């Protein structure tokens, strides 16, 4: 007589072995996928860190350029102040020249008057 129970137990054992092996394979695959995802996340974080470094460098460069622009504007302001001072000096010199010409004109008028007045 065939022992049906032994066949059922053997089949059940094989099914359990196969199911456990399949579950272990799935777990291994899931762990490998999780490891890959963690690697991708680490790479993305590294890229983000690099991008932040580039942004910081760009902001530093922009700050340096703005400082140079401010320095240039200060220099331009100083040069314009010197130019205004020179224009003021030139104006003063022209005024002195005009005064001198006026004085010379007055003296020549006195001379002409003196010559015309003398007998």
Average pLDDT works out at 93
Query: Over the alpha carbons, how many angstroms does the gyration radius reach?
Result: 51 Å
Shape from CA axes? rod-shaped
Distance between the termini: 179 Å
Tell me the total number of β-strands.
0
Give a structural overview:
- The structure is a single chain.
- The protein is rod-shaped, with a radius of gyration of 51 Å.
- Helix content is 96%, strand content 0%.
- The N and C termini lie far apart (179 Å).
- It has one helix and no strands.
- It is mainly α and 119 residues long.
- The mean pLDDT is 93.
Can you give keywords for this protein?
119 residues, mainly alpha
Write the SSE topology:
Elements: H1 4-117
Entry summary:
By secondary structure, the protein is an all-alpha fold.
């Amino acid at each position: 007589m065939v022992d049906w129970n032994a066949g059922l137990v053997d089949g059940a054992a094989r099914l359990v072995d196969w199911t456990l092996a399949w579950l272990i394979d799935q777990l291994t695959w899931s762990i490998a996928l999780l490891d890959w995802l963690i690697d991708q996340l680490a790479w993305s974080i590294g890229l983000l860190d690099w991008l932040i470094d580039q942004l910081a460098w760009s902001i530093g460069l922009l700050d340096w350029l703005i400082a140079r622009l401010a320095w240039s504007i200060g220099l331009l302001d100083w040069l314009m102040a010197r130019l205004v001072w020179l224009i003021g000096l030139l104006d003063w010199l022209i005024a002195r020249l005009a005064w001198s010409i006026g004085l010379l004109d007055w003296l020549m008028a006195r001379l002409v008057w003196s010559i015309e007045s003398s007998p």
